[in-house]
Specification:
Elements lengths: L3 H13 L3 H8 L3 H8 L6 H11 L3 H6 L36 H49 L1
Helix pairs in contact: 2-3
């Protein structure tokens, strides 16, 4: 499975022709940071959010490689490129999101919790299926024995 760094690299290649400076300018960071993010440095939540909004990238794809690169989800903004308000607050005139990192961190934690819950449910479902199959086998054995006794 690809890392987030490999997915960022794909975005830089596809949307900015591999140009780190061009990409950095669009998301509001330095070229050196983008170079590091394309290698092995873990990007901060605020940058992940900006990438999703500016380029219309699926948050779930960028974080976990799930879904398609540009599928709509909660982090995607369907209109023009995101421009952060200076005060970091929601612009109520055009409903722009804030630059609040804690909101994204909460979404990330919730996403990981949901993935863990999903894995537990899948395991429980598999165990229930196996138990049901075993009960059906035993019931078949009992019915077979009952038929032979008559």
């Amino acid at each position: 499975m690809e890392s987030i760094n490999q997915r960022i690299n794909k975005i830089v290649l596809e949307y900015c022709d591999g140009n780190n400076s061009k990409f950095a300018k669009k998301v509001g960071t330095s070229e050196a940071n983008i170079r590091n993010y394309r290698n092995n440095t873990q990007p901060k939540p605020a940058l992940i959010r900006k990438i999703c909004i500016v380029f219309g990238i699926s948050y779930s794809w960028l974080m976990d490689g799930v879904s398609s690169m540009t599928s709509p989800d909660i982090m995607r903004k369907p209109t023009a490129a995101y421009k952060a308000p200076r005060n970091g607050r929601r612009d109520t005139r055009n409903n722009e999101p804030t630059n609040d990192e804690s909101s994204l961190e909460i979404l990330i934690k919730n996403n990981h919790k949901l993935l863990e819950i999903n894995a537990l449910l899948a395991k429980a479902t598999q165990e229930a299926l196996q138990a049901t199959q075993e009960m059906m086998r035993r019931l078949g054995d009992l019915l077979g024995e009952h038929g032979r006794k008559k």
